[in-house]
Amino acid sequence: MAVSGDYLAFVLEQLAGLPGVASKRMFGGVGLYCDELFFGLIADDVLYLRADEASRADYISRGMRWRPRGRPQRWRATRCARCDPGEGS
């Protein structure tokens, strides 16, 4: 579940517009928080976002895949030129 420094820096840069965003290393991965509320996880340089029934349709419409692993549900962020440092310009 290792997370590279470059990928973590990239994700935090993308989230810089949100106030109160923080990251905490845990169990080889990184937890993402906004004002102490856990909302995401980075594992093996993949971003997963926490979801519930209210946000499920938004995740599906953006092509995200569900990671069926207990509760709460986690959705794998989609790769795109705007959000993937390895693609696009």
Q: What integer is the average pLDDT?
A: 79
What is the N-to-C order of secondary-structure elements (H for helix, E for strand)? HEEEEHEE
Task: State the secondary-structure class.
Answer: alpha+beta
Taking Cα atoms only, what radius of gyration do you get, to the nearest Å? 13 Å
Query: What level of helicity do the residues show?
Result: 10-25%
Structure described in brief:
This protein has 89 residues and is of the alpha+beta class. It contains two helices and six strands, in the order αββββαββ.
Written overview of the protein:
The protein has 89 residues and is α+β, with helices and mostly antiparallel strands. The protein has helices at residues 5-14, 53-61, and strands at residues 21-26, 29-34, 37-43, 46-51, 65-67, 73-76. The chain has one domain. The longest helix has 10 residues, at 5-14. It is globular.
Topology:
Layout: H1 5-14, E1 21-26, E2 29-34, E3 37-43, E4 46-51, H2 53-61, E5 65-67, E6 73-76
Antiparallel strand pairs: 1-2, 2-3, 3-4, 4-6, 5-6
Features:
2 helices; 6-stranded antiparallel β-sheet; 89 residues; alpha+beta
